[in-house]
Amino acid sequence: MNRRLFLSTATLASGSLIVGVKTRANTLISPSIEDFQPNRLLIFQKDGLIRLITNKAEMGQGTNSSIALLAAEELCVPLEWIRQEVRIPDEKSFVGTGGSWGMAGYYRGGRPIFATARQLFVNAAGKYWAVDPSQVTVTDGKFRHPSKAESLTYSSLLELASQLEVPEEAPLISAGEFKFIGKPHPHAHLEQQLNGTLTYGVDQQVDGMLYASIERCPVTGGKLKELDSTATLKFAGVKAVIPLEGTDWEVYDYFPAGVAVLATNSWAAQQGRHLLEIEWDLGGNQKLNNAFIQKHFSEKLDEEGVLFHEKGTKSDTDETGTTLTAIYDTPFWSHSPMEPMNTLAHYTVEGCEIWTPCHMQSRLLAAIKKLTGFSDQQIKIHTTYLGGSFGRRLLVDYALEALLLSKASGKPVHLLNTRIDETQQGHYMPAGKYRMKSSIKGGRPTSLNMKVVSLSIYAQREPDQLKDGVDHSLGDDFLRYPYEIPHLKYEQVLANNIQIPALWWRGTFANTAGFVMESWIDELAHIGQADPLEFRLSLLQETDGLIQVRGEEMMDKGIFRQVIEEVAKLSNWKEERKKNHGKGVAACFTFFESYAAIVAEVSVVGKKKLHIHKLSCVVECGQVVNPNLVRAQVEGGIVFALSAMLKASINFEGGRVVEHSFGDYPTLIYEECPEIEILLLPSNRPACGAGELSNIPTFAAVTNAIFDACGLRVRSLPLSRHMEV
Amino acid sequence: MPTYNLLINGTTHEVEAPGEMPLLWVLRDLLHLKGTKYGCGLGICGSCTLMVEGEARRACLLPVQAMDRRAITTIEGLSDNNDHPVQQAWREEHVPQCGYCQSGQIMQAVALLQKDTNPSNEQIQEAMSQVLCRCGTYPRIKKAIQSAIELSKRP
């Protein structure tokens, strides 16, 4: 997704204040310049603090906390001097978070910019002392020269530095000299998280604001037919009832038709909803249900697919051996972050101000411009701390609704979704159906034909992302398994006449591809009565180095093999299985160029009662910047996948979502959480992503372990369809 | 509208609210004590867990009329310097990710350890399974509970 950093250099914040300064000590501490911004990322303040302005949102992944480490490293300053904040989006700079590329992007693109800022101040120190800057060193924020007794600081050099050209290049701190990178550090917000003072989107407030809650049409595409709000308006605290027309369902900024209740507190707003008398025109989608979706997907699976990848030719397939075929199914899933969608918006004729837990702020800016006709300068978007996202907050629907309600009511409005809204009015990880077919000769597969049927997120929301009718996000993850199979043929069929809003979801189709592909490799291993782990290694024999996946993305078969070998050791793969116990292995490579392998240990007893005991996970994600937070992401990815695969699915009846909340869309609970052991491998590669990694192999590692334990091959999720979990 | 006297973190707050309005909204929207979080409003997720007279309770299920003159402890009132043993343990183990559920997790753990300074594994599982986390902090909560037990034993 966002692989490019949008950075420009040499933007002077206080340009008018830097005329006629002499390089004497007393002018160096002149108060005429308060702060200095040598590039878009950094503002050096007179008080010595350094503002670090990133384009990343914080949702628990800790990217900004770790970008601060990169800044402290390259600027050679104490970490406490760095004050991180999220940029307010404008036309010049992209602000958005996604694709697990935040850390990787700043490791590659941010450090050189921090380094040039350091070099600028080194040059300033050289000029001040009239010495060769190459003799100036900086440690702990102090600039020194062998011939000088005194030291200088960033703040004492502000004025002088602001008059110099920012160097185009500067040497990076070498890995051997790292003081921060590679060492465990806490989240920057840890202390506020411990006493409840960290403010999320839900906690935003301004004087005179109203709270809003929206009763939305339960069926996609439906419209408001009749409304009687008499009883609602009598409820204590309710101030207004405002219908919202909604948008076409098939757009990025989609939100459904609804009726908003505005009140002096959010409880009254929610209670007022129950008293609304609404008649909806439910439209054509009211017949949508699970049976229809399944039938439609099955029919699509028999249609000719669009070929999106082929390696080798049909002649490489040896059909004289065994042929194995199977169908896999994955359900719709919800994001369900703990903090429901919300936004505080204040609209006036002069412009608007928004406080929102959203991580695609530039998309929000564009959407607001379209909606209001305001210019960039009239729109101020503050990014709050986010209570999780898992992809949901890439969308901006709730922010637009809040803004429209503010405009209609003339008040600042804080819109808060209920948990039931979150579950029933979500945008879902699309369900999929996969047909796998392989020919096996002499214990080795000679072919793999894969066909996937699924909703396409791009076709629905951003059709210009399709290339010749192919959605590469849907299926390219099958290219990220470097197993040596002579003939590969991958096809896809898009099922986009099913009108369910579809959205990216922590790892999205990499999860389902990983489940299907790594289950299938297991099936092939068992057909040949091979050990599934050894079987994988036997399909990773050729040393053909880097394999090009798409564009510049390169996959290293050696590392893929390495994580499997290491997880075999970590999990003690070869030990004899205890009674009723089984182990399963799965690995992955991701588009953000990280690798992981997992071994799950489970037991299955009695009437298929499943217990997941332990997951051992080996990760190679390039240079680890902050091992504390990478480990947290690896733990979190595993729990996220287990939460989805155990009992959760979103189902449809009469065009409506059946599930309501965590009661019937259950997430993993404390006592269900298995032991998790993690090994981060050292690497010479630059930092890669970790946020959407360990979830991918979790699915098949667990289902392969179930097969090992009891012989049950799980080809559809969640597991609760097959066993007691 | 009726008036209630709530004893929150040792301070009495007089609040005017409908009797059936749950404590969660009284705290958040009327008294602006935002540390207790709304997660589901249905008593399922535990994000709004606080203590009423030492018991872990879901603030979203407690009508304010039942809270009159009762002693309520929220995350804001746990300690003056973030140094309650549970907070210390949470810090040591770097528990929070997004942190949204952590007020509830911490209050649930505090109530558990106040009742029994050395709870059994079953008691820990039963108590901590009441509060949901989507980020996946359970492995660290597990370690933090053990460290909080150890810290509580220190004089």
Count the helices of chain A. How many?
17
What's the CATH architecture of the largest domain in chain B?
Roll
Radius of gyration of chain B: 15 Å
Strand content of chain A: 15-25%
Look at the helices and sheets of chain A and give the structural class: alpha+beta
Query: What is the CATH third-level topology name of the largest domain in chain A?
Result: Aldehyde Oxidoreductase, domain 4
Cα Rg of chain A: 28 Å
The biggest sheet of chain A, with number of strands, parallel, antiparallel or mixed sense and barrel status, is: 7 strands, mixed
Count every beta strand of chain B, where a strand is a DSSP E run of 2 or more residues: 5
Could you tell me how far the N terminus lies from the C terminus of chain A, measured between alpha carbons in angstroms? 35 Å
Give the neighbour order of strands across the main sheet of chain B.
2-1-5-3-4
Taken from the alpha-carbon principal axes, the silhouette of chain B is globular
Under CATH at level 1, the class of the largest domain in chain A stands as: Alpha Beta
